Amino acid sequence: MSILFTTMSSLKAGVWEIFGSNLVQHFVFMTCDILQQLERLFIRTQLAGLYNLKNVSEVTAPTII
C-alpha cells in the first residue's frame, strides 16, 4: 500500500508540469485523495482487527506528511 501512496504523491507532484488543464488536474488530485483515504481506512480496519477493537474510530489514522 505504501507503494500506491508513493505513486500517488509523485503523480500529484508531476501533474502540474504534465497537464495544462485545470479540469484534468482536479480529477487527478481528487482520485489521488480518494485512494489515500481508502488506504488509511484499510490500515485502520486491519489494525482494529489485529487488536480486536469494536470501533474502527478507536484506531488513529497514520499521519502522512
Your description of this structure?
The protein has 65 residues and is mostly helical. It has one domain (2-58). The chain has helices at residues 2-18, 22-50.
Short précis:
The protein is mainly alpha-helical and 65 residues long. It is built from two helices and no strands. α1 packs antiparallel against α2.
Sequence-ordered SSE layout with sheet pairings:
Blueprint: H1 2-18, H2 22-50
Helix pairs in contact: 1-2
Protein name: AlNc14C201G8685 protein
Organism: Albugo laibachii Nc14
Which residues form runs of ≥5 with pLDDT under 50? none
From the spread of the alpha carbons, the general shape counts as elongated
Radius of gyration over C-alpha positions, nearest whole angstrom: 15 Å
The overall average pLDDT, rounded, is 69
* Total of helices: 2
Total beta-strand segments: 0
- Largest pleated sheet: none
For the record, give the distance between the C-alpha atoms at the N and C termini, rounded to a whole number.
Answer: 16 Å
As an assembly, this protein is: single chain
Structural class by SSE content: mainly alpha
Number of domains: 1
Strand percentage: under 5%
Helix percentage? over 70%
Protein name: AlNc14C201G8685 protein
Organism: Albugo laibachii Nc14
